[in-house]
Amino acid sequence: MGDLSNKAQELAGKAKEKAGDLTGDQELKGEGQADQVESKAKQAVDDAKDAVQGAADRVKGALKRND
Fold first, then answer.
1. CA-CA distance, 24 to 14, in Å (whole number)?
2. Are 13 and 24 in contact (CB under 8 A)?
3. How far apart are CA 12 and CA 23, in angstroms?
4. What is the pLDDT along the chain (67 residues), one digit of tens a residue?
5. Nearest to residue 33, comparing CAs of 45, 15, 7, 46?
6. Contact yes or no for 32/15 (Cβ under 8 A)
7. Contact by Cβ (8 Å): 16, 31
8. Which segments of the chain does DSSP mark as H helices, in order?
């Protein structure tokens, strides 16, 4: 579910950035850019968690085979 909420936040950020661009509202544009950065950071954390979980699962599987 995190992937979907991160993607939604990224898309909302792009929309804010574009709206700020079109209206000349630099604050809105900055908010949109910040939303996109935050979304990408969250995705990186989620990806790291997945990688760690995958490695832990592989270690557990190897230990079970050695029993």
1. 15
2. no
3. 16
4. 578 999 999 999 999 999 999 999 999 999 999 999 999 999 999 999 999 999 999 998 888 887 6
5. 15
6. yes
7. yes
8. 2-23, 26-65
